[in-house]
């Protein structure tokens, strides 16, 4: 005579086997077709290397250049205060504006491109501050015009770095969407390129022979150390423009307001 308890257990086991998906079925679940490729995330994040390359050059070369221009130590500290101030104000403001940007080129890419162009112009101003001051009547003892050009270019550079960095992070978030694995990978790529930019930037700043590669940087107003800084910034411009081009060409954004465009409020945009 069959045992009723054992029959009930067998029925429960058969019911579980029917309702619970097998491990092979879980493994064979197709991946989403719209998942962003890793190569695209890698290319978009590459602009972080160009940004960080410029930051590293600032830290390694501009402090000695400030002393060479004769800027007092107290004023030099105020000049360096621009970095955290611009990060506090500029990045949230640019993020708010890019969330609602209706450009046909997308929401993030116009800001990335504008920031990269501003970086290039600002480092040209910084590198040629002594030459510009010389044309405005500076002497070897008094470099007030050169200091004014330097401070102007320095502040523009810090603002432009933050204008570029914020939309780049936001663009990676737009591409990954709610795919948390891809978001973690995108953040890892961004950090990777920041580390690469730091290494290359400090290595470039440590080499004192760049003026030999660009001999035209030596002028009556610009000595060897000044010419070396100017030459290093030429490399910064080239590296920044290359990584920016790779980044903005990798991502094809849908203009805000068109069919298929993401909604800023739905993506967590802040209502102001």
UniProtKB/TrEMBL annotation:
The UniProt entry lists membrane topology as: Multi-pass membrane protein
Q: Does the UniProt entry include the keyword Transmembrane helix?
A: yes
Subcellular localization(s) per the UniProt record = Membrane
Q: Which Pfam families match?
A: MFS_2
Q: Which residues form a coiled coil?
A: none
Please tell me whether the keyword Cytoplasm is annotated for this protein: no
Recall the GO molecular function terms of this protein's record: sucrose:proton symporter activity
Q: What is its main location?
A: membrane
Transmembrane ranges, per UniProt, are: 41-61, 73-90, 111-134, 146-164, 185-211, 231-251
Which family is this sequence assigned to? Answer: Belongs to the glycoside-pentoside-hexuronide (GPH) cation symporter transporter (TC 2.A.2.4) family.
Name by which UniProt lists this protein:
Uncharacterized protein
Q: Which organism is it from?
A: Vicia faba (Broad bean)
